[in-house]
Prior knowledge:
With 266 residues, the protein is α/β, with parallel strands linked by helices. 30% of the residues lie in helices and 20% in strands. Helix 3 (85-93) crosses helix 6 (200-206).
Amino acid sequence: MTHLSTHQGLTSYVVIPARLQSTRLPNKMLLRETGKTLIQHSYEAAREAKRPLGFCVATEDREIADEVVAFGGQAVLTEPGIRSGTDRVARVAQEAALSGIDIVVNVQGDEPELAGEHIDLVIQALEDTPTAVMATLAAPIRNREALEDPACVKVVFDRFGRALYFSRAAIPAVKRWDDRLMTDIQPHFYQHIGLYAYRRDFLLELTKLPSTDLEQLEDLEQLRVLEAGHTISVGVIDHAAAGIDTPEDYRAFVERQAARQMRRSA
């Protein structure tokens, strides 16, 4: 990793943690039915962001690292057995080359349709909230099935955009349901988007914080931050990009890519 120069204001850097192991979609990072691997799509999508000074993929798998280098990206090999993507990002943040970076952004490797402007927004959300150690994004939920799906993580936040709680349950819980709640102009429910910006110093401390009861019950790492008394800033976007978790997700992505290609060539 080359040394990064800094500029006026807060500096930022994107790390994309990636690994081959995937229960529901084996070797998904290296799937290439579109002509490009999934990790290349995600890397190129992230590169559309304007604010970060640099980008890299952090992986313990040589095959992924070789693929990233082959398409012209930056790869960092980390030791095997790192527990989570956050820990892998923190491991890269420890590098001396990132010592001048203020904000480290964690972008998932299975988000090939993430908008670069959303990366810029999550950086801005952290900059705009000096008391926050971390920022993330949320999008309105307009579908009751999604609201009640435990795989769709929900977030509630105050009028200043500070997270109050994250949950797999439907929050806020509605005492008297009315279907019009899903279509009101002002959204009542928000899906949490798994894109994170951390102040680098806090990220290095986060991995040392003990796991908490709420974190374990919900299986949501960000609750550890709230339980420790820290502030998480939440930026709002119009809609969530589709992540790739299952074979069905990947097939749908391949079809969308083919449709885009046809429109471009028409």
